Structures are given as structure tokens and as C-alpha cells.
Amino acid sequence: MEKLALEAARLLFTEGGAGWIVAALLGLACLHLHRESLRALEARIGDAGAAATALERTAQTNAAVAAALESRTRVLEDLARLVAEIARGVDRNDGRAREKLDEILRLVADLRHPVR
Fold first, then answer.
1. DSSP E strands, the chain
2. pTM, two decimal places
3. What pLDDT is recorded for position 18?
């Protein structure tokens, strides 16, 4: 490593100082590349922030959809219970109606054929 550093220092002073110009140009190139890499990183950070915002909005939307589905599920369960109660009521009323009709038919039959 030291040999490389000494050779680089020797090259800077040879050829009438042309090495200093090359070093300065390399330094400027490194500075430009550093600035460009910082801009690229800032753009990536901005993209990550936008993606995070989009994910947060999506999560909020998903939560709202889940709440709406849960509410509709409760309504459907309530409707199913109500329909079952109505069906039981109809069955009970049908039995009562049959009993009343049978009683009416007996009374009508008794009126047609009076008991002697």
C-alpha cells in the first residue's frame, strides 16, 4: 500500500506537474459523482416516502372495507334470525289455523247433520 502511495506521489511531480492537473480533474469528477449519488439517494428516499404513504392509504382503505364487510355480515345474521323466527311463527299459525278450520268444519258438519 505504501509503495502505491509513493508511486502516486512520484507521478504527481513528474512530467512537469501534469499529475496535479490529473489529480484535480479526478477530484472534480469524484465531487460530481458524489453529488449525483446524493441526488439519486434523495430521489430514492422520496420514492420510499411516496410508497409508504400509498401503503398507509391502502391499509386505511382495507380497514374500512373490513369494517363494512363485518357490518354487512352482522346485518345478514340478523336477517337470518328474523327469517327463522318468522318461519317458526308461520308454522305455529298454520297449526292454529288448521285447528280452527277443523273446528269450523266440525261445526258445519254438526249443522248439516244435527245430533238426535
1. none
2. 0.45
3. 65
111 alpha-carbon distance from chain centroid: 75
The whole-chain average pLDDT of the chain stands at: 80
Contact of 12 with 23, CB cutoff 8 Å:
yes
Residue type, 109: A
Of the candidates 21, 14, 17, the residue with the CA atom closest to the CA atom of residue 6: 14
Phi, psi (rounded to 5 degrees) for 113: -120, 85
pLDDT at 16 over 70: no
Residues 24, 30, 36, 41, Cα dihedral to 10°: -150
Q: How many residues does the chain have?
A: 116
Assigned C-alpha cell, 86: 318468522
| 44 vs 29 pLDDT, higher one | 44
What are the DSSP calls for 25-53, one per residue? Answer: HHHHHHHHHHHHHHHHHHHHHHHHHHHHH
- Residue 52: name the closest of 20, 73, 60, 87 by CA: 60
Residue at grid coordinates 258445519: 108
